[in-house]
Amino acid sequence: MPTSELTFRTALDADVPGLVELIESAYRGDASRAGWTTEADLLAGQRTDPDGVRAVVHTTDGRLLIAERDGELIACCQLEHRGDHAYFGMFAVRPELQGDGLGKVIIAEAERTARETWGAREMRMTVIRQREELIAWYERRGYRRTGQLTPFPYGDERFGIPQRPDLEFELLIKALD
Questions:
Q1: How wide is the angle at C-alpha 164 spanned by C-alphas 159 and 170, nearest 5°?
Q2: What's the rounded Cα separation, in Å, for the pair 25 and 95?
Q3: Nearest to 113 by CA among 135, 141, 80, 139
Q4: Cβ–Cβ < 8 Å for 106, 49
Q5: Burial 24-61 (b: 16+ CB within 10 A, else e)
Q6: Neighbours of 125 (CB within 10 A)
Q7: How far apart are alpha carbons 5 and 33 in whole angstroms?
Q8: pTM over 0.85
Q9: pLDDT at 2 exceeding the cut of 50
């Protein structure tokens, strides 16, 4: 897919409904199975909701970056400035477009934005450690596993309903210098 077709911008309030639909479709339910980034076997329930997305849109220390093609929302990611680094999250690509190299373009733009906007020296993210294929994809993009684990927020259905008892997040880091 030619990158010249993509445009990037910061999300606005009017984008919230479309962003919720995009994020949910990439992670949960049967629609997510059209792509390879689904969490449907690990988590049921919601991935996010309008209030959660709106909070990211309104944060003063970050932005929700949108990728569009021909005016259509096709991907997004959260960037949050945290001192000398940026946090990367809420990454979603339309399931039917996954596997075509779009994710590489989006993450490269996110890294460029964090470097140029905040002078971030590294990007950090947390990924459910059981998502080996996804972690391997990030490793191919230069991220390294730290072995630093944090527990999944069991009992807080805002993040989904776990389908197994051993979920944990692992911190991944990439130097942006």
A1: 60
A2: 7
A3: 80
A4: no
A5: bbbbbeebbeebebbbeebbeebbbeeebbbebbeeee
A6: 21
A7: 26
A8: yes
A9: no
